[in-house]
Design a protein that fits this description.
By secondary structure, the chain is mostly beta strands. It has one domain: Jelly Rolls. It is built from no helices and 11 strands. The termini are far apart.
Length: about 130
């Protein structure tokens, strides 16, 4: 039985600049075809715009407020919002609130750095 605790998962930075805690994936469980992680975007920060060549994602916002842009269309997001991102769709997420933006991220197939294509310079540098 695979049961993971969020506060015991080590954080790592994805290719797009998100801080991730991977809860379940092939790296740490019997799961083979998807992954579940919590992503965090710090106050005043954003991810780099990117897309995934094979992976589809579902974001589910649990804390904070933000704005997401998918293929040029932007929307505000808040806790309780679920966002569908298909393979090949360019997307970027901003934290627009006073608290850390936190969301669950489901990926199928599982998240891999080499499936992420960055489409802009890092907006958090400089």
């Amino acid at each position: 039985m695979d049961i993971k605790k969020l506060n015991e998962m080590p954080a790592f930075i994805t290719k797009d600049g998100s801080e991730i805690r991977e809860l379940l994936a092939h790296r740490n469980s019997g799961i083979r075809h998807q992954s579940l992680a919590e992503a965090r975007v710090a106050v005043t920060r954003s991810t780099q715009e990117h897309f995934h060549t094979q992976t589809e994602e579902i974001y589910y916002v649990t804390h904070g407020r933000g704005r997401i842009r998918i293929d040029g269309e932007s929307r505000e997001v808040k806790p309780g919002d679920a966002i569908a991102i298909r393979p090949g769709q360019r997307h970027k997420l901003w934290n627009t609130g006073p608290d850390v933006l936190r969301l669950l991220c489901c990926c199928a197939p599982a998240y891999e750095h080499n499936d992420t294509v960055i489409t802009e310079p890092d907006p958090n540098l400089g």
